[in-house]
Design brief:
single chain; elongated
């Protein structure tokens, strides 16, 4: 849509300042402050969606204590098209092309017609800027892993650094496991990151049956389909005693000289949790985990 001179100036300011902000949270704060200033708002907040708990959390507010109806904010995020009062507008927050949250703004005098569409367009453009930042952050994290290997960091430490990066960008809620191939039908837990509770796992070193022949040869992350029973059943005993059920699982095959040497498993207690961008992120770090397994063999 065609923006007014004032709205275009706001977009230009965001385009100039967002790339220089060090923390993503501050980029979202800048976006909210820019919108609140543009519309001369008396109240408002920016919320982001936390995937692991399927909840919205406040990143920034115009005032310390706002009186927004969270049921309406959640309904808007879920695209349920709730009725809004004349003094309120809401618009989707984006990261790249993905809806990641909601901006809710209020103004005592009410908003001019079309204000919500203007806010939506500004957030669409700002979302591309934030998406670019996040992509750059993944590349920076990958460079950090490669640098750690070149500096001689121990393979086991590199593995847990990769797990930390994966959880940062994918936000899964159960955990991640690196499995090494013992023979054609057996695996061993080489490393395990627990995300569902505090503390460390007690299953590192555990051996279990595993159908290596069921894994694809290509070294790319993939979501395990619900009807892939052999892989799902093989993963069942590879867990802490109190681990909640895995309702979503992502695997990344690891090979060395075209021979399978292991795989990495990432899981969530929520059904249909993982999406394409998650498999792409996992795939970026498979070569480093493969190197670690080869070094530990």
């Amino acid at each position: 849509m065609r923006l007014s001179a004032e709205a275009s100036e706001a977009v230009t300011r965001l385009a100039r300042e967002i790339p220089d902000v060090r923390e993503e949270r501050k980029a979202f704060a800048l976006i909210l402050d820019t919108l609140a200033s543009l519309f001369n708002c008396t109240n408002g907040a920016l919320f982001l969606h936390r995937r692991r708990s399927d909840t919205l959390y406040k990143v920034r507010s115009v005032k310390d204590a706002e009186s927004l109806d969270m049921k309406t904010v959640i309904a808007f995020y879920r695209n349920e098209k709730p009725d809004l009062e004349e003094d309120t507008i809401m618009a989707p927050v984006r990261v790249g092309g993905e809806v990641a949250g909601v901006v809710a703004l209020t103004r005592d005098a009410g908003f001019e017609r079309g204000a919500g569409k203007i806010a939506t367009e500004i957030l669409r453009i700002a979302g591309k800027l934030v998406g670019g930042r996040r992509h750059a952050a993944v590349l920076e994290a990958e460079t950090g892993i490669a640098g750690a290997i070149l500096k001689g960091v121990a393979p086991t430490d590199v593995i847990y650094r990769v797990f930390h990066v994966l959880r940062r960008f994918i936000d899964y809620d159960l955990g991640a496991t690196l499995l090494g191939r013992v023979d054609d039908n057996t695996c061993r837990v080489v490393a395990r990151q627990v995300a569902w509770t505090e503390g460390k796992s007690d299953i590192v070193g555990l051996t279990a049956s595993f159908p290596w022949q069921e894994l694809p040869r290509e070294q790319h992350g993939f979501v395990v389909p619900a009807d892939t029973m052999m892989l799902r059943e093989a993963l069942c005993p590879i867990k802490e005693e109190a681990l909640p059920d895995r309702l979503s699982t992502m695997l990344g095959p690891l090979g060395h000289h075209e021979h399978p040497i292991g795989c990495v498993e990432v899981s969530s207690r929520r059904a249909n949790f993982f999406v394409d961008k998650d498999t792409h992120i996992l795939s970026r770090f498979l070569p480093y985990l493969c190197w670690c397994l080869a070094e530990l063999a």
